[in-house]
Design brief:
The chain is mostly beta strands and 64 residues long. The protein has one domain: Nucleic acid-binding proteins (OB fold (Dihydrolipoamide Acetyltransferase, E2P)). It has no helices and five strands. Strands 1-2-3-5-4 form a five-stranded mixed β-barrel. A hairpin with a 7-residue loop joins strand 1 and strand 2. It is globular and about 30 Å long. InterPro entries: NA-bd_OB-fold.
Length: 64
């Protein structure tokens, strides 16, 4: 999962459980998301996974 790129579909921020869509097994699936840094990431922002906590939680950063 680390290194996968996706898009925010539910606002991600400190103390907020957000949601991202990530490509998995030829489809796109939703994962709970937390920010990797102390920042707010708005809906529609492209992100990259920097850590994974199975089964469905990821820590993300803005993708540039």
């Amino acid at each position: 999962m680390v290194g996968k790129r996706g898009r925010v579909v539910g606002r991600v921020g400190p103390g907020i459980v957000g949601e991202v869509m990530l490509p998995v097994r030829g489809a796109t699936e939703a994962f709970y998301a937390y920010p990797a840094a102390d920042e707010v990431i708005e809906v529609g922002t492209p992100v990259v996974v920097v850590d994974f906590d199975p089964p469905r939680t990821v820590y993300v950063a803005r993708a540039f």
